[in-house]
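Note to self: keep these together.
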Amino acid sequence: MSLEVESVDVVRLILQYLRENNLQRTADSLSTETGIVLNTVDSVETFVSDINNGHWDTVLQMITPLRIPHRKLIDLYEQIVIELIELREIGAARSVLRQTDPMVLLKDSEPDRYVHLENLLARNYFEPRDAYPEGSNREKRRAAIAKDLSSEVNVVPPSRLTALIGQALRWQQHSGLLPAGTAIDVFRGKAAAKLDEDERYPTKVSKTIKFGNKAHCESAAFSPDGQYLITGTVDGFIEVWNFLTGKIRKDLKFQADDEFMMMDSAVLCMAFSKESDMLATGSQSGKVQIWKIASGKCLRRLDAAHTKGVTSVKFSKDNSHILTGSFDHTAKVHGLKSAKLLKEFRGHTSFVNSAIYSHDGSHVITASSDGSIKIWNTKTTDCLHTYKPSATARPDAGAGDMDKTIHSIMLWPRNVEQVVVCNQSDTAFIMNMKGQIVKTFKSGAKVPVDFNSCTVSPRGDWVYCVDDNKILYSFNTTTAEMEKSMQVIHVHVNMHVVSTHLSATRIYYIYSLRWPSFVCIKVREHCAMQMPCVVALCPCAARGSTKHLDCMCVQQVHDSDVIGVAHHPHQNIVVTFATDGILKLWKA
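Structure:
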């Protein structure tokens, strides 16, 4: 469906802009030349109220720039004359009657009606029965005039021209035509070319942000419009970054003045509103705060959101509610305007690590360290289902394996009736709302590993998991396998070569500090990331074995424990952050 903008509407937008910026003569010239007027008032209710209360000086100022039919103007001016006569303001009544254009028009078109006003003016008393027709009075006449005039005016939000341009630019950013940080000439319409739409896994570090060991990043998120990367640190600071440069955004005045958003303890989680204008943050002390990103101002404080640390926070679709999860084993819904507790979901026996809304908001889905996922009715808070993904995936598993901590859940963009589940094991899942495992993503590592964080690409083509060995795994959700152009594991300097065979197959025998026995690897000179790599790996009981196990397409991303991972909403950019105080931005 094509959208067409009428030229008349364009002129009206320009007229509003000119009047709001006190360019009155320019606005008058444009209106005269085009014959288009801006019949708008700030408030129809106020306009009607002024007429009903007889605030004629205000009413006349409001209608002067408007185009009102002659008949309605005559009715208005006639009422003003009558009320001036009633107040015995004879001089003012005479001036309005004899010198204003509507009354001159009345004299020419309806002389009897005009003469009636002259007779009222000549009397030394005022009789309402003579001034108004039978069955009418001053209040009824005012109400009739207010009804007639209000139908001729409109209310338009202020600054519509600049607002529409801003919306257009935000849409360009949303659709990838205008990436964050890109300069644009609004008049010429020049912007960066649209990015490649194919989702690809990251291969290299584009930027590194250093926080320091005692002020490491505890949470990070990209805004839905792709403009911001925001981090929350262990010492409570909330900072907005330019992820293209790795620098603090100084175009935000409060940050330029070193007045940062801040909480009183570690910022464990954060989430944006759909429009990217508000940020919700949760702290180690159980508090939640809502921020206006443009100004850095705190809009709401929920000082008693939870009795323990807040692990998860989400906005509802209409931004009227905040959903939170906590170490206190509960999830809660809070009113954004009232800042009061509205709903509470109890039933988990350990930490609630993640809490999200279903795509339509009718359900709340929670994940806990007790190894379970619960689906709740949002309105009644009833628990509808409880699932244990580990038990479903491995029915023969022991009790300990069935209670594996679930770190996070998130809706899968390809099918919003399914969720991506990351638990404390070497396998991530996609699960439907019936608790059935749809896909599994297994690390393939031959040494015990556990995933500790996970994120999904914007369209759901990739699932990224980080394990406790600081390895980033890129899973293709179509094949449910780790997929790169070559399956690789980088050779680290802590591997000690024992012996080698310079054969055509290039088999090397290596003893590694990470693997407790001899391993045999098949080496290629370079992988897709242009680094020395191995494409096959196996622990060997003795040298000489040439058996090749499945290789691991992995990448070590940090030197210390990784806390979290997040994906940009429109670009192939992944961010990881760790306890070493380093945040890394990875690009495809």
